[in-house]
Write a structure and sequence with these properties.
Elements (H helix, E strand, L loop, with lengths): L3 E3 L3 E5 L2 H4 L30 E6 L15 H17 L4 E7 L15 H4 L12 H11 L3 E6 L3 E3 L12 H4 L4 E4 L2 E4 L4 H17 L4 E4 L22 H7 L5 H23 L4 E4 L18 H4 L4 H7 L4 E2 L14 H10 L6 E2 L1 E3 L15 H13 L5 E4 L2 H6 L4 H7 L23 E7 L5 E6 L8 E8 L2 E8 L4 E4 L10 E7 L9 E5 L1
Parallel strand pairs: 3-4, 3-14, 4-5, 5-9, 9-10, 10-11, 11-12, 13-14
Antiparallel strand pairs: 1-15, 2-21, 6-8, 7-8, 15-16, 16-19, 17-18, 17-20, 20-21
Helix pairs in contact: 2-4, 6-8
Length: 518
């Protein structure tokens, strides 16, 4: 390949240079021996800030893998297709279910391999690979956050037909497991259950480079009815309540058990890796009547989830209430519910709404809607200044593109890339001003952009904004990439300005360094 030559007439400016009179904190470029007129950079619009994520459910093989028993290569190919679709749609995060029910989609000394991988609990992928490590590495290569999603108390999903493995907790600690309806559950009233589930989650935080820990709306189980009598089946926690209830009302004691777990999880993640975000996606209604006019399931009284308390106490970094109804549903008005959650956000954590994207279909029905309904929900989220994004359940809906929903997202609300909103309570110090170098590849004629951090901190992402005439284009690049090429089409205008910023894992953005090309 022919050598690259330094482009002529290039001036590098640092942010605030005109105001401060300070030299840019970058490696100098040899000056061109000719006079330069005064230059004035035109500030671009800021990079959009919005959490755009999707759940990848492994339970019952909803999203990935598509079925148990696929080869390792087939599993990896499916996951890469999901990651590539996320990039295509300008998503910036994925939430991967790694512990569906006291099993693991990663190598664990604490729990058996998930049967949703191989069809047999305890059997690793063949040939061997680490699914979670693979997912993290490939997501980060694409500039995507990867959050690990855990179910803390479910021990066996009702859909599982394969045999439980000998290392499953129902075999090793049957005293902690309760049969409820057609499922198995860990008893949240048992202190050893808390210790075990916390150890499982914190082990992942310690060993994997994940960006977030995520738990959903399964705490105590959703109530089931006896098929014969149609009466509600009580959760069988008489023994643990007798031992640990300490004179409390059982409902209050159950809520306290869940509260304690959420608080301990948040503190544990903070202690091990402070940059890892903790997220909860509760049922979308805290209690009927909150706000006025809301009707429906009472998560506070039925599954003992006091999500308002967790938000009020700041025991999380983001909340994704599952607003899984039509935007104009009379008993579950989308905008009113969202505003209620925002008003309860005393610590100003992130509110990133959960949406039932997989209900999108070509025909609207009792359990489905057209694509324009989901677009309306995103618009309502954006209209509330206290909300900062959406999480789609699940990737299956985006992969299947029903009613052209993926196409409409790409051409509409997700047409431009976005950075995840910053989390200043995790880290409020922005990266140092980076350095930028432009060269020209004499073979292709394309422009080569080289980027370097301003200090020893490796950026999580680079945000590159380029001006073409009066238009600005934004590109977000993984921080591990230090050079990229801009192809030059004959007759097409080249970028006249390039603004580069470094972004850290908490979302802080550095001052820009500016390249002006004439």
């Amino acid at each position: 390949m022919k050598p690259r030559h330094r482009a002529t007439l290039l001036t590098i400016l640092a942010a605030g240079l005109a105001q401060s009179g300070c030299a840019p904190a970058i490696a100098p470029i040899p000056p061109i021996p000719q006079p330069e007129p005064a230059l004035q950079a035109t500030p671009p619009p800021p990079v959009a800030r919005e959490f755009r994520a999707a759940w990848i459910a492994s339970v019952s093989n909803i999203d990935w893998p598509s079925r148990p028993g696929l080869s390792s290569a087939e599993q990896q190919a499916e996951l890469l297709a999901i990651l590539d679709r996320a990039v295509e749609l300008n998503l910036n995060a994925l939430i991967l279910q790694v512990r569906p029910a006291a099993d693991a989609l990663y190598a664990s000394a604490l729990e058996p391999w998930s049967p949703y991988l191989t069809g047999s609990m305890g059997t690793p992928p063949e040939p061997f690979y680490e699914p979670l490590a693979f997912a993290v590495e490939e997501a980060h290569k694409r500039g995507l956050e990867l959050h690990a999603w855990f179910n803390p108390f479910r021990a066996k999903h009702s859909s599982l037909r394969s045999e439980l493995g000998p290392s499953h907790i129902s075999r090793t600690r049957p005293d902690l497991v309760r049969t409820y309806g057609s499922s198995l559950w860990l008893d949240p009233g048992e202190p050893d259950v808390h210790r075990h589930s916390l150890a499982v989650i914190l082990d992942v935080v310690q060993r994997y480079d994940i960006d977030g820990v995520h738990i959903d709306d399964y705490f105590y189980p959703y109530q089931e009815r006896d098929p014969a009598s149609n009466e509600l089946i009580p959760f069988p926690d008489d023994e643990s309540f007798h031992r640990y209830g300490a004179g409390m009302r059982r409902d209050d004691w159950r809520r306290q058990n869940v509260d304690r777990f959420v608080a301990e999880l948040f503190a544990g993640v903070r202690r091990i890796k402070p940059h890892v975000k903790v997220g909860v996606s509760p049922f979308g209604i805290w209690r009927p009547g909150h706000p006025a006019g809301v009707t429906g399931f009472d998560a506070y009284a039925s599954i003992y989830a006091d999500a308002r308390k967790w938000l009020n106490n700041g025991w999380l970094d983001y909340l994704s209430p599952q607003l899984y109804w039509r935007s104009d549903s009379p008993g579950q008005n989308y905008a009113s519910l969202l505003r209620w959650w925002v008003d309860e956000n005393t610590y100003r954590r992130h509110i990133w709404v959960g949406n039932f994207t997989s209900r999108t279909d070509t025909v609207a029905g009792p359990q489905s809607w057209r694509a324009d309904e989901l677009l309306r929900q995103i618009a309502l989220t954006r209209a509330d200044p206290g909300a900062g994004g959406n999480v789609h359940f699940s990737m299956r809906g985006l992969m299947r593109n029903r009613d052209s929903i993926a196409d409409l997202l790409k051409s509409g609300p997700y047409s431009q890339p976005a950075l995840v909103p910053a989390s200043p309570w995790l880290d409020s110090i922005p990266p140092a001003t980076p350095a930028i170098f432009l060269t020209q590849d004499s073979t292709s004629g394309g422009q080569v952009v080289d980027m370097r951090p301003g200090n020893d901190e490796q950026p999580w992402l680079w945000a590159v904004r380029s001006r073409y005439g009066s238009d600005w284009r934004t590109t977000i690049i993984p921080g591990s990439i230090l050079s990229f090429r801009r192809a030059t089409t004959p007759g097409a205008a080249a970028a006249s300005e390039i603004w580069l910023t470094a972004v850290d894992r908490a979302g802080n953005e550095s001052p820009p360094v500016i390249a002006i090309v004439r």
